[in-house]
Amino acid sequence: MSIRTDLAVEAKEVYEKENSRKIQGVEVSNSNKGKIKITNVKVVTEEGAKAMGKPKGTYITIDMPRLIHYDIDAMDDVSEVLGEELSKLVNLEDSMTALVVGLGNWNITPDALGPKVVSKIMITRHLKELVPDSIDERIRPVCALAPGVLGITGMETSEIIKGVVDKIKPNLIICIDALASRKMERVNSTIQIGTTGISPGSGVGNRRMEISERTLGIPVIAVGVPTVVDAATMANDTIDMVIDQMINSAKQGGDFYNMLKTMDKNDKQSMIKEILDPYVGNLMVTPKEVDMVIDSISKIIANGINISLQPALGREDIDRFLQ
Amino acid sequence: MSIRTDLAVEAKEVYEKENSRKIQGVEVSNSNKGKIKITNVKVVTEEGAKAMGKPKGTYITIDMPRLIHYDIDAMDDVSEVLGEELSKLVNLEDSMTALVVGLGNWNITPDALGPKVVSKIMITRHLKELVPDSIDERIRPVCALAPGVLGITGMETSEIIKGVVDKIKPNLIICIDALASRKMERVNSTIQIGTTGISPGSGVGNRRMEISERTLGIPVIAVGVPTVVDAATMANDTIDMVIDQMINSAKQGGDFYNMLKTMDKNDKQSMIKEILDPYVGNLMVTPKEVDMVIDSISKIIANGINISLQPALGREDIDRFLQ
Amino acid sequence: MSIRTDLAVEAKEVYEKENSRKIQGVEVSNSNKGKIKITNVKVVTEEGAKAMGKPKGTYITIDMPRLIHYDIDAMDDVSEVLGEELSKLVNLEDSMTALVVGLGNWNITPDALGPKVVSKIMITRHLKELVPDSIDERIRPVCALAPGVLGITGMETSEIIKGVVDKIKPNLIICIDALASRKMERVNSTIQIGTTGISPGSGVGNRRMEISERTLGIPVIAVGVPTVVDAATMANDTIDMVIDQMINSAKQGGDFYNMLKTMDKNDKQSMIKEILDPYVGNLMVTPKEVDMVIDSISKIIANGINISLQPALGREDIDRFLQ
Amino acid sequence: MSIRTDLAVEAKEVYEKENSRKIQGVEVSNSNKGKIKITNVKVVTEEGAKAMGKPKGTYITIDMPRLIHYDIDAMDDVSEVLGEELSKLVNLEDSMTALVVGLGNWNITPDALGPKVVSKIMITRHLKELVPDSIDERIRPVCALAPGVLGITGMETSEIIKGVVDKIKPNLIICIDALASRKMERVNSTIQIGTTGISPGSGVGNRRMEISERTLGIPVIAVGVPTVVDAATMANDTIDMVIDQMINSAKQGGDFYNMLKTMDKNDKQSMIKEILDPYVGNLMVTPKEVDMVIDSISKIIANGINISLQPALGREDIDRFLQ
């Protein structure tokens, strides 16, 4: 029952809270674009990587303003910022090919983010190959795949991607995935961009085996959005919060204070089990309007990716192409 | 933040726990059919109704065995039991018309149970009226409607139903609705049948205004299944459980014991708010495979209703008709 | 096998071709807004109504330019024109209520236009009633319903609408329906607005009983778009075209010329039956990308209706409200 | 405008009609199982292959009885027959892996057959690899993929399959595809099994490049069902039928007879263009209830494939596994 988070900013928070000291080997910087907050977490040493539970590399977090999904202009602003941040990582000549991969299970709404993004990507590789004269030469060849998950295909997603990459030979992969966060406040409001690929065991549906430059031989940019909190995580955090509040109220050194301080993992686990039974490990907490929100986020992400992959085109050209 | 439950069996449990005594004016009996447990809760006095927070009447609960959704035969058994229990409440001559109403919002998966059931009901009223010779005379006229919810239509569901009832003049209404339960163990595993209609404020989406014999002038049978636990309820129950465990461990009469005993609603509310922010009141806890499970339950419920409304037909006839 | 069309402009064409003379009692005028052509057909006498097979009244046809569904700006232009034309027919004070009705079967893609439009209408009636202070007083109360079709509900759509209208008492109804046209060139490219309600037997799915001011007591504006050509119509027209071409080639007065001229309905029907067997009467001709196109048209229509019903709001306000 | 058919039985009919003689190098045999007709077309010589426009190999056609989609038992019978016919072609040891590929575009209902079948296949490969002890050893490892179409992915489907096959190394591929037939009577009522793979240019959506043993190095069994007639084909056949009827009526050797006999392709093409404009090449003829029928066929096909791939299991085991 180790509490896992897919977000680098949360991993840092958890570490610093649990260890009551600042993390080493990790550099953090912040900036803002209007109401949008950008946090850059660089894991620079092995020590930092171990403390974070994440490989060395860059993790950029874009915090969307509240109520974004009710405001088309604000959505566009986030797409622009995402496009800019991605552009810094996409180091490709115009003629190089990008493969966009939508991870996740299209039958589970909050896990369907990846496949939904893929359906809104500007697909051009076949036109560049089959009818090159019909298409602006500055347009980059882009292809995309939503391979499904292990239970649907019987194949590790990384196996499928590896097979396709070996055959198609793209120069860059952008992977989109739905994540789990620790905190409700980050659900559907944070975009994380990472350069270290997708690690095993991530996401809503526990997909495994690494999709990364190490395994595929080409750069992999991961774009993730937390769309759920695991119910066990929420129960765990609720228990922690109650206990913390008790500790603050209890007399230091008193019997009760000591009892609280020594409350162990087994007690917590049995409480979580009682609350969630019979569904432990299989429950998620989501906003009621999850279908609408996933739709809205998938547009934001797809637009950001399209902007970064097609620097020669304006937004209108992209919209026209996609319709 | 009063903790509400749509289930009579839970209302009784909550009352008896909070008041540490047995509820008055409520009669409970149990029976079993194979692995299926049937609980009959009769609220017989006004005192009982007040204690329960539910009108006088009969509430039948059918507890499905675990893993039901992975076993077609077991699903059929539940449909049969549901059909039998409903049949006892459907007091209609063969020629009388039933209207089946699917409440809920088809855009929110766990609230879509009602509309999904309606799509699997055997619809016959138009055939009886338009081509009576083409259809077995023992077939009951049945019609159905999934009116949507207030935010989708701009009309109270009860207004739409009242309008349609006044025009169509059915003799009975069966309403299907997705409920919220207090406990995860009841989610997607309990069917409640009630004779008192649908009360205000019920369900996942807070639909309002009563749909009942009192307002419509004809009997209303409500069939509900809890498909979510409200996240605020889960947080509240988690906090309660932690506190209860502390109380058990604390020395009776000691300072800490007294502090715990006097912990008030405001403390709890502020903790819940911190956990769920910014989504308080708008979060639900569901199993990951909610789409598949709602599909499966809607088949079970629709089959049970079809069995009860068409006593002259066998299962094969109903299946053939529906295809 | 009488060849039916839902479009007034086609009914006029058919009459004039079959009778080789101009129709009487029908006034036609044309205008253009950019690339959009607007045709106004007024059936002014009973003689005209009989010849047209349509009640006396006004039928406005908006012809969209080709490739509209690939161009967001062009789609907006059509919505504006539709909004203007509808505004001329919507004679309501600000506080009066409009009910938007989406006819058709959501399970048959080309018949799902009405329900899809309804899902994009700005719904305000409940806000005006429940939280009047929270909403701009110039906003008109609008409610909406997609009642389904006879085979799904067991009730005539007109019965459901009549029941709801009697209860809700709106001041105006706007009905949206998918139509069948005679000619492929009009499919998904023509919007017809009519003031005479929806006539029996119209549309893709043969819905019956009139929805009109005569039956409901309030004005009914019908908005329709042809989304299919009936396959039997296409086969019939193909046969006619071949025969016409033969007649042109044959020597006038010769045996063959006479044979062609006397070819009767039975011959044609048996040929159509042979081509379409075993599906006669149940086949439709649609473009392959029908799902995408119906989506696009439903946006155009919903925007036009929103513009006409909320004259106090700009497009941005409406977009923001709908998100 | 060469009239193409995906069905071997139709290719033979067309050849024999156009050439007024029996085809050479093709062996045909028939049998029946209850109301189900099985036709076995063997193309045995190169001459036969050229005449048919299909590679040498075996093409089995299963004709379903009418109204099959309204009768669960009859559907099961077809699945059994399909399972038997496939079993004869699946020459694998128990431990060998099969890959099921669902071709086609899930956004175009009649082209979505392949992806829908894949979603109902019993997927076991990952269980055999990850938790071999939890699963009956007689269960064959099966994996599946619905890769999408060129316009969605930017990659030739055959490229994706080739990449995955090289990586996963299955021993057999079963491909499912929606076909176009010449005749409405075969739409949704014929299943064709072929051993020569999927040829270029087949299907509703014109997918290209061969998927076959020749290109992939392992046996490829293709299962196809015609789900549409191309509207241009229907128009063409209608014209032919009218002309044939004229020819039969015209005096042999007369002017008109000669004119009809010499009517050329250009005349026909211009008539087809006039009928279908502006949609030539992009229109399909389908039954109205296409969504329901594709669902029903996908169950029949998936069951047949499951039966053939898991000979050690009974139908109940397969159903239980799939739920």
UniProtKB/TrEMBL annotation, chains A, B, C, D:
SUPFAM superfamilies per UniProt: HybD-like (SSF53163)
Membrane-spanning residues: none
Stored Pfam families: Peptidase_A25
Substrates-to-products reaction catalysed: Endopeptidase action with P4 Glu or Asp, P1 preferably Glu > Asp, P1' hydrophobic and P2' Ala
Keywords recorded for this protein, A-Z: Hydrolase, Protease, Zymogen
Processing and modification events after translation: Autoproteolytically processed. The inactive tetrameric zymogen termed p46 autoprocesses to a smaller form termed p41, which is active only during spore germination.
GO molecular function terms attached to this record: metalloendopeptidase activity
Classification via InterPro entries: Pept_HybD-like_dom_sf (IPR023430), Peptidase_A25 (IPR005080)
Residue ranges listed under propeptide: 1-6
Record-stated family: Belongs to the peptidase A25 family.
Record note on quaternary structure: Homotetramer.
Name listed for the protein in its UniProt record: Germination protease
Primary gene name: gpr
